């Protein structure tokens, strides 16, 4: 969002948050684009994500075998079907995930609005995540 639409964050002095006029639907005039370098927080040991401190973290989903099957299918197809989205939600809903910072996050609900899929990394790895967590 444009900095002109940002307001002071009362809970986090010195930081800004989205102002009241930035809620969806988002037109191009409400979005400001910036090029940002990306790094793999799972491979770069100098980066320490922390859910409670930074607002993001990583979780290891490799033990979720059914989810891995669905994610492999999504990666091969290059898109998320409705059935895949349902399987992803079913696999994650109700799970308590351990973050790399040792915090835990319980997945209470994954909204139906959609899932986001992106590819990254040298091998074009597909990363699928919920569009919004509750």
Task: Describe it.
This protein is of the alpha+beta class and 134 residues long. Helices cover 21% and strands 18% of the residues. It is built from 3 helices and 6 strands. The radius of gyration is 17 Å and the shape is globular. 7% of the residues are buried.
**Number of individual domains:** 2
**Through-space gap between termini:** 22 Å
From the spread of the alpha carbons, the general shape counts as globular
How many β strands by DSSP?
6
What is the averaged pLDDT score? Answer: 76
Structural class: alpha+beta
Highlighted features:
134 residues, alpha+beta, two-stranded antiparallel sheet, two-stranded antiparallel ribbon, 21% helix, 18% strand, disordered C terminus
List the helices and strands and how they pair.
Blueprint: E1 6-8, E2 16-18, H1 51-54, H2 65-77, H3 82-92, E3 96-98, E4 104-106, E5 115-120, E6 125-130
Antiparallel strand pairs: 1-2, 3-4, 5-6
Helix pairs in contact: 2-3
Summarize the structure.
With 134 residues, the protein is α+β, with helices and mostly antiparallel strands. It is built from 3 helices and 6 strands.
